Amino acid sequence: MKRYQIAIWLAALAVGVGLGLLRIEAIDSVMNVIATIFTRLFRLLAVPTIVLAVISTLASLGGGRDMRRMFRTTLTYTLLTTTTAAIVGLALYLWIAPGNLPAGAVAAESATAVSTEHLSYTDHLMSVIPDNIVEPLLTGNVLALILICFAVGIALSKMPESKAKDTLLSGLSGLQELLFTLIRWLIAVLPIGIVAFSAQLIAQVGGTTMLDSIGKYVAVIIGGNCAQFLIVLPLFLLAKGINPIKTLRGMTPAIIMAFFTKSSAATLPVTMDNAENRIGVDKKVSRFVLPICTTVNMNGCAAFILVTSLFVMQNNGISVTLPMMGLWIIISVLSAFGNAGVPMGCYFLTLSLMSGMGADISIMGIILPIYTIIDMVETAENVWSDSCVCAMTGKTMDSKKSKVNAA
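The structure assignment produced for this chain is given below.
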């Protein structure tokens, strides 16, 4: 994101706050209409965003026979680190306990929020299992869609090479590009939405309580990313007998680039060069593992999806029980896995998940300007995690080669 875009978003937030503080009924009505329009547009794009992202990601992975062992190792470490990131985020969320925004902040659409209080845990799990392919699309049942998409994506990756498979993949690619074009258009006019969302909230509530709640939410997100970066990932390296300080020193250029570009994909050439030439990972490993990690290893994204979803649901009056928290750890990891190629990454995926539940997403409009900073930290953590997974996979493959040679 360019600096001028950040400035525009912050200016839009300031304008929205100013308009909300005016407490002029006509302005409030206009802002409510604009916020509703943006909410509907987000919901329009929510379902196809998740469907195409997950299917395309899984279908593109494939897997040659010579790379299966390396792929399994990479996937194992990816799932371990990503799940751990989500758990760390949940632990901080429970500890810091961001409070609810004042009731007026989420009153506008609270009547449409999906309440799970009347459902048992078994009923909630059963609702995820689809009994036909059309209903989840029509009802926006995001969890059922993710399950279907995983099945379809894996099936596509296992199909033999043929014209039929190429046609399917080309069609998915074309649809995804079309969707991204629509999303880019929506993002281009998003400052208008930010003005409306922030004005809508400020007009309904006092700013002090809201800032306290949002401040604790940001502390959870940033704190979780820092804990994963500085403590959890180095412990993973130490468990494999790898020096985390040496590895971090070698990968620093890539991490710095990731921080400022906010793009793991753009940083990939530097990440690969650092892995090969600065920490000594075999080229065959780095050139296989890192592109996969750039696609699926989203530590920061999983934590963001989990914490933000809990925060939004909490503010919508949805009961968040411990079993549901466990379910959302799984959802956040799977959603992060399908994050590749989506503009605004995990922010948009989280917004899609909340829209699919019918939750009031006006809170996401307030989070959006702050997300610029969060995104920088998350991307740096993602690239550091990619580097750790690459180093651990390389160490594992070297150990297996040594055992084979010794035999």
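Interim note for the steering committee: The CA atoms of residues 255 and 380 lie 5 Å apart. The longest helix spans residues 362-406.
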